[in-house]
TrEMBL record:
It comes from Buchnera aphidicola. Its EC number is 1.1.1.100. This is 3-oxoacyl-[acyl-carrier-protein] reductase FabG. Catalyzes the NADPH-dependent reduction of beta-ketoacyl-ACP substrates to beta-hydroxyacyl-ACP products, the first reductive step in the elongation cycle of fatty acid biosynthesis. It catalyses: a (3R)-hydroxyacyl-[ACP] + NADP(+) = a 3-oxoacyl-[ACP] + NADPH + H(+). One of its GO terms (biological process) is fatty acid biosynthetic process.
Length: 245
C-alpha cells in the first residue's frame, strides 16, 4: 500500500519536530518545512529516508505558493497537512508597529489560506485528507501584549471550523490542537523567568512537552479519528476548561 504523505510546517524544532517524528514512526512519509538551510538539513537528518524537507518562509507569499505548487506537482497529493509554524512578536497594542501586526498575521494565519487552496483539490479528488492546525490557548483566553498573536490564532479557529464544514462530505477532516504552555524555544524565556507564577495556573502542575501535542496530532492524522471534524482539542494540563471550544 502507498505510504501516506504529510506536510508539516515548521518541522525543524519544538512542537513541529516532535510531530514529524511521531508521524514518521507511524509509517507516514513526512515533508517538513524550515526557514533556513540549517533547519532543512536538521529535518533531513531526523527523517532519514522516511521523509524530506523544503525551505519555505511565509513572509514571501509568492515563493510560498510556488514551492507548494511544485510539491503538489511532484507528489500529486498531500494526505495530511499539519499547519504548525508560528511566531510571536509581542507589544502592547498602543505602541505596536504595523510591521509586528502584519508579520504575525502573515506567518501564523494568512499562510494557511494560500497553502490549503493549493493542496485541497487533490484531497477532494481522492476523497481523503487530514488537516490539523496548531492554534493556542491564547486564542481563547487572550494575553496582554499579544493582540497580534491572539488574533492570528483565533483566526485559525474560524478558518478551520468553516473549512471543516466545506469539505466534510469529501472525506476530509479539519481539526485544531490548542497547546497551553509547552517547553520550546518560543516559551523557554518566559517559562524560566515566571515559572512559579505560570505553574500556579496549571492544575497538573507541569508545563507541557512537544510530545504531549504530537500525540494528539498523531491521533487526528489517523484513520481512528475519521468521525471527528471541526474540533479544537486543548492540550494544557487543565489550565483552560470550557464547555464550548
Ligand atoms: P518554535 O519557535 O520552536 O518553532 C516555530 C516554528 O515555526 C519553527 O520550526 C520555524 O521554522 C517556523 N517558522 C518561524 N517563522 C516562520 C516563517 N516566517 N515562515 C515559515 N515558518 C516559520 O515554536 P513552538 O513552540 O514549537 O511552536 C509551534 C507552534 O505551536 C506555533 O504555531 C505556536 O504558536 C504554537 N504554540 C506553542 C506554544 C508553546 O507553549 N510553545 C503554545 C501554544 C501554541
Amino acid at each position: 500500500m502507498k505510504k501516506k504523505i504529510a506536510l508539516v510546517t515548521g518541522a525543524n524544532k519544538g512542537i513541529g519536530k516532535k510531530i514529524s517524528i511521531e508521524l514518521m514512526n507511524s509509517g507516514i512519509y513526512v515533508i517538513g518545512t524550515a526557514t533556513t538551510e540549517v533547519g532543512i538539513n536538521n529535518i533531513k537528518k531526523k527523517l532519514k529516508n522516511q521523509g524530506t524537507s523544503i525551505l519555505i518562509n511565509f513572509i514571501d507569499i509568492s515563493i510560498t505558493k510556488k514551492t507548494i505548487k511544485k510539491l503538489i506537482n511532484k507528489y500529486k497529493t498531500i494526505d495530511i497537512f499539519v499547519h504548525n509554524a508560528g511566531i510571536i512578536n509581542d507589544n502592547l497594542l498602543i505602541t505596536m508597529p504595523d510591521i509586528k501586526w502584519n508579520h504575525v498575521i502573515d506567518v501564523n494565519l494568512s499562510s494557511i489560506f494560500y497553502i490549503t487552496k493549493i493542496i485541497i483539490p487533490a484531497m477532494i479528488k481522492q476523497k481523503y485528507g487530514r488537516i490539523i492546525v496548531i492554534s493556542s490557548i491564547i486564542s481563547c483566553i487572550g494575553q496582554k501584549g499579544q493582540t497580534n498573536y491572539a488574533a492570528s490564532k483565533s483566526g485559525l479557529i474560524g478558518f478551520s471550523k468553516s473549512l471543516a464544514l466545506e469539505v466534510a462530505s469529501r472525506g476530509i477532516t479539519v481539526n485544531l490542537v490548542s497547546p497551553g504552555y509547552i517547553l520550546t524555544d518560543m516559551t523557554r524565556k518566559i517559562l524560566s523567568s515566571k515559572k512559579k507564577e505560570i505553574l500556579n495556573k496549571i492544575p497538573m502542575e507541569r508545563f507541557g512537552t512537544p510530545q504531549d501535542v504530537a500525540n494528539v496530532v498523531s491521533f487526528l492524522s489517523s484513520k481512528q479519528s475519521s468521525y471527528i471534524t471541526g474540533q479544537n482539542i486543548h492540550v494544557n494540563g487543565g489550565m483552560y476548561v470550557d464547555l464550548a471550544t
